[in-house]
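hey team, just a heads up i'm posting the complex here instead of the shared drive bc the drive is being weird again. everything in one block, sequence lines first with there labels, then the predicted structure for the whole assembly after. its two chains so it's a bit long, scroll down
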Amino acid sequence: MSKDVFTDATIMSGGRTDDDAIVVMDNVYKRFKDFEALKGVNFKVGRKEVVVVIGPSGSGKSTLIRCINRLEEHDDGRIIVDGTELTTDIRNIQEIRRETGMVFQNFNLFPHLSIMSNVAIGPRQVRRMPKSEAEALAMELLTRVKIPEQAEKYPAQLSGGQQQRVAIARALAMKPKVMLFDEPTSALDPEMINEVLDVIKELANEGMTMVVVTHEMGFAREVADRVVFMAEGEIVEVGTPKDIFDNPQEERTKKFLSQIL
Amino acid sequence: MIWMKRNLFRSVGDSLLTVVFGSVAVYVLWGVLQFVFVTGRWDIIQVNLKLLLVGRFPEELLWLVSGSIMALAFWVSAAATSSQSTKEARPGFGRRIWEAFQRFGLLAATGLLLIAVSGDRASLVMGAMILGSIILGQLVGFARRTLSPLNALPGWIWHPLLAVAPIVLVALTLSQASLDLWGGFLINFYIAIISIVLSFPFGILLALGRKSTLPIVRLISTTYIELIRGAPLFVLLLLAGVALEFFVPSSMAPGQIARAVTVFTLFTAAYVAEIVRGGLQSIPAGQTEAGKALGLNTTKITTLVTLPQALRNVIPAQIGQFISLFKDTTLAGVALNVLDLLNVGTAITAQDDFLGQGLIYETLAFVALLFWVGSYVMSRESQRIEKKLGVGQR
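-- predicted structure starts here --
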């Protein structure tokens, strides 16, 4: 039992039971040609839980969250999001994508659309919301990420930090049940990292369910309910930020932390 | 003087180059001016102006052509002013006049030249009426932006509404005078316009087909593109002129001009397809991923995210293709025996009045001038569109 507790990523924090699980990964494998990116990953995320995934580059952390909304197709095992299993059925995939929001390392805003349209495009095109309603929602979200005054501009006119906040607003506009963050601050200049992390922290405090892949250890320590350490396609160690950062059990975790801290 | 010293005579080599190329330039310029103003016998153009511009188009129906041109001018003018954003700061009056001059100065000058050459009152009236329809278009566009019942109209009603008049007039012209009665520059112009309008959407479909996940669609598109691109345009035109007779009884066969339009459309579409495909490939994968992550389906990702960006990226190549289509319309004259501008130009040198006087230079110069003006205007406009669409891009 004691060994399981820090390697089993299916035990959720705060005494959440399986009824609370919103993302379930069961023995998931993912291969790219002859490289095995995920080697039998078991992982659960509970409602309102904030899980931060850390690990060296190439450890499979991005692949892990990209499998959750099918940007990568897993080769083996099962992935269930909010009760729907990801299969090759395009309707299942669309349904899961509607319920999950994703924020990318390189923002990936649509450069030909105004900030307003970038945020409103999801609700308008996917949820078929009338234009005025979608724009009101977009304005509300832009206010929430603190850039309502930029609504009429285009992505290239904004700083990296502002663009990433727009990207967060764009994902939130779909009212997702889970937010996936794929290294949201890695492409940012240092002085812009905090404005983005602050927005993510606020979301966490409001009870958004999130999986965050990041290299920002201070941020992980502050907001994570659980920290998952991955290496070579496996989940090596799981625990509260305190467990992982102050008292790591596994050699690989200790080595990784000593290298970056 | 300092400028000359610095840029033209900096060293012995520089000075030598300046002198040599300077004299060549002066010699050429002298020759051209001599030709234009002294030795050139422009009466051949003057006498045949109508033939060069519209061929044997029936005199009594010419008002339809003038009407179409006026309606087109009105449409372009009104559409351009009514789509101007009211939020953007507008440049000052003088600046706007200067921009208008840069855009339309060459066209206006060519129009004035034609009026001067023809020297009759009818063409002067015609020019004035075109100018009038442009001004009317500006006024209507202005009203659309500011007056209350008009500015509430959504764009998808307003723009088709503007297009009604020119489309009706062009259709009326076509129904009254069959394509085979058309001639001169009118043919080159309309073959180019119709082929551009038809080949653009067709080319986009081919590009998407070539990137389709369905193997059969991909195979058909790829085969089509490679076959067409592998054949010389001239050969295709000759084929359309000759080979069709084997399959279709001549009474049912379409006219030469319709065949030319078909060949140009099919031919250009293959090139447009490759240009658009290149544009689609230049869009980073992250754009598609962001669309997927939002839950957009494949069709919406293409039409709302990747295709608009791809089309904008390929504007220069696209316009280049259309310019070469415009000029290639002269091939139709040779291959299909259509009385287009070039053919009229060479034919009139054999008229009794001008035979054997070596006036081919005059007519070719005139032909070249009209094509150059058309191509140059297209190229300028493409740069302008590019700039306009580039708002906030990178």
